[in-house]
Amino acid sequence: MTAASALPQSSQPLATKGILASLGRMEPPFEIDRFGASFGLGPARPSGVLKFRFCFREVPFTAQAERRHDRPVLSLTGDLGILPFTIEHATRRRRLRKVLSAARQASGLCWEITEQHHIRVTGEIDLGLPLTPTAVIAGAATLLLRSGPYLELIVAVGGEA
What we know:
It contains five helices and five strands, in the order αααβββαββα. By secondary structure, it is α+β, with helices and mostly antiparallel strands.
């Protein structure tokens, strides 16, 4: 017997009863962008966009999962730091540009140098249905595996003195 079951029915909060009843009607998998609405906790996320950040191989990434034409899509953006100026590190700059050129051709991701000289990698993947935490992690891993060797090499070359 739990403490909640020992209380009279009228003492249990109505919201708790509603959530528990909702759980009984739902079947997994639970879609993460529609989770709150499924439990009667209010509407789904207003933007319908899930955003989070993480690091992979010392590279900070931002991730965004959203529905486009009712299909979940994951977008990743990684910031690999600043491309050194030619005067400071001419050899390292040439090596980084060479790796970026190879990455553009072979990884299937978009590698660019911004106007502020930041090296950035972006990619998107269709997650399929349903939009679950497992699908988001699998999508991120798939994109990162495509770029893994290039990320490692850019971090190594970028960290040279």
